[in-house]
Amino acid sequence: MDAIQLSERVAVIVTMRDRFSMFSRCLESLYKNTNIPFRVIVVVGGANTEIRDYLKGGRTGGNLTTVFTKRLLLQGEARNIGMREVGERFCVILENDTLSGSNGFVRSCDVRSRREQQLLLR
Description:
This protein has four helices and five strands.
């Protein structure tokens, strides 16, 4: 398998856990610190109105897909729901309290591609 190309889009699944207050910081750090094409898939189970309004408000850019469920989800359930939306060759899964450094997951994707792995959990 070839190494990741800088023009190749990466899917980033963000799953919601109990630290809803960190969610906007998670997305902001992702958008600020990622310099390759990517698409964000946010899986939200039983989110409060503030989170729903934030996601529907368009403040997150145009490359965002949101999947809402009425009830809170287990970690594995949320990841599986997000994976159904992925069409890209590489996928990174983040929890909503993860802050992204400067292209940190890009380097990880590159290593995974040389090892023929296509999923990265952070």
